[in-house]
Design goal:
Dna Ligase, domain 1; 14 helices; binds glycine; 26% strand; six-stranded antiparallel β-sheet; five-stranded parallel β-sheet; single chain; alpha+beta
């Protein structure tokens, strides 16, 4: 069988890699792809091939010419731009929701109203299109809030506020300065919750639901909370939507999984299938919170796997991903058996840190960061340690170089969480980003507390 994964980030590389592990799959195409993949064992032996394609029409034509059996679309933007609809019109089998259904992620106000209407627990919220009214609201509400861009923002659109001043600044940035573009035309202002975040994924086949009985925890802020000096220098600990992850989440128990399915997943899926009448086929990702009083709340729905949550969940999943994919297309998810291995996994993301610019210094991600730093040490990693690439490029005179703020994921597994942590950190330390403007010092940075 041949699979095409559409995407270019760490999650998409991981999807391609996981399909490559399937007993049914002889070839995985990754487009627009990521040059890092050609440096991995599956890339070197051609099991995963990166193909550059400029348009969705080209993707469809390629799938038909090469008899691609299944296309998995990893991220929300191509889904919102209608890639699934186009491929389905040509008779190509896909995983991912149709354009219309992406609204569950791209219109928070719509989803919040939907969930509230059916009694799914979620924080108090209000929607604003006028920045003045939004400011008045946060000045009067009294409790802490989260200000969220209503539309897509690459997982970065939620600003967690400590006080009124933070909230007013967030409103200014999102609604007036438009840091997330048109996604900030409306904001959802939500009560801030405390507790533990849970990323919970389910697959839908248009008729059935298969909730994964396993979940992960994302680390969304750029810095370790203990790193107060850096946070101060950056003017706050920004939500960058994923700097590391671990699985199983410390809260995974059969009873909590059952509770999430009963209180949250089932009513939501029922309303998608029956009230909206949507034949949703693909992944639905519930961003959840469990507070100290044992209340569950839904923070958000996403129409794709979480990044980096997928990278650790995929390592732990022993069920053949191609079989899940075919069941999503065929409406047979009720027949899929979930099998999970016994390992713990930790994903630490290597980011661009402080580096020398031609004039002055780059602050490093999530501020201004440098590019083109040679990535070394990948050949020294221990066996079984996975690397998934995100912001990288391949240039003829240097080889693999950095090209984004979040550059690559190092994922290690072990029978204990502590062992997985040690292994992930031991191996990420072997990698360096060479700052050629600064005596070849290492300008890689990563969070130290993933999995703690
Ligand atoms: N891990 C956050 C996201 O994928 O949006």
């Amino acid at each position: 069988m041949k699979v095409l994964v559409y995407g270019s980030g760490g999650r998409d590389h991981c999807l391609a890699d996981t399909y490559g592990d399937s007993q049914h799959v002889e070839k995985v195409y990754l487009t627009p792809g990521n040059p890092g993949v050609t440096y991995t064992p599956k890339g070197k032996r051609g099991l995963i091939e990166v193909i550059r394609m400029a348009t969705f029409e080209e993707v469809a034509a390629f799938c038909l010419e090469n008899s691609v059996d299944l296309v998995d679309v990893g991220s929300e933007n191509p889904l919102e731009e209608g890639l699934i609809d186009l491929l389905n019109e040509k008779g190509i089998r896909t995983i991912g929701p149709r354009q219309e259904f992406v609204r569950l992620e791209s219109d928070r106000a719509f989803t919040d109203d939907l969930l509230q209407g059916i009694g799914v627990p979620k924080p108090e919220y209000q929607v604003f299109e006028d920045p003045d009214r939004a400011r008045d609201y946060v000045r009067n509400i009294g409790y802490q809030v989260v200000v969220k861009a209503n539309g897509l923002a690459a997982g970065k659109g939620a600003v967690v506020c400590d006080d009124v001043e933070d909230a007013v600044t967030a409103i200014e940035n999102i609604m007036v300065k438009k840091v997330f573009g048109d996604s900030g035309d409306r904001v959802v202002i939500e009560e801030r919750k405390y507790g533990t975040e849970i990323s919970f994924f389910v697959y839908l086949d248009g008729e059935h639901v298969m909730p994964l009985r396993m979940f992960a925890q994302d680390y969304k802020t750029a810095f370790d909370p203990e790193d107060r000096e850096t946070i101060e220098r950056f003017g706050g600990n920004l939500n960058t939507g994923g700097t590391g992850c671990y699985c199983p989440h410390k809260l995974v128990t059969p009873w909590l999984v059952n509770r999430i399915i009963k209180e949250i997943v089932n009513p939501t899926v029922n309303t998608i299938y029956n009230d909206l009448g949507w034949q949703y086929r693909g992944v639905l990702y519930f961003g959840l919170n469990l507070d100290p009083y044992d209340n569950l709340d839904v923070f958000e729905l996403n129409v794709r796997h979480g990044d980096p949550e997928w990278e650790v969940i995929a390592r732990k999943l022993s069920t053949d991903l191609f079989e899940i994919g075919m069941a999503v297309c065929d409406g047979t998810l009720d027949q899929v058996k979930q099998v999970w291995n016994e390992q713990h996994y930790v994903d630490v993301i290597a980011m661009e840190g402080r580096s020398k610019a031609s004039r002055g210094w780059n602050k490093g991600y999530p501020g201004r960061y440098g590019k083109g730093h040679r990535i070394v040490g990948l050949d020294d990693l221990e066996r079984g340690v996975a690397v998934y690439f995100a912001g990288v490029d391949d240039v003829s005179e240097k080889g693999l170089v950095t090209y984004g703020g979040r550059v690559l994921h190092v994922i290690a597994g072990d029978p204990t969480l502590e062992g997985a942590r040690e292994k992930a950190y031991r191996n990420i330390e072997k990698i360096a980003f060479i700052d050629h403007n600064n005596d070849d010092n290492n300008c890689m940075r990563f969070r130290k507390t993933i999995g703690l």
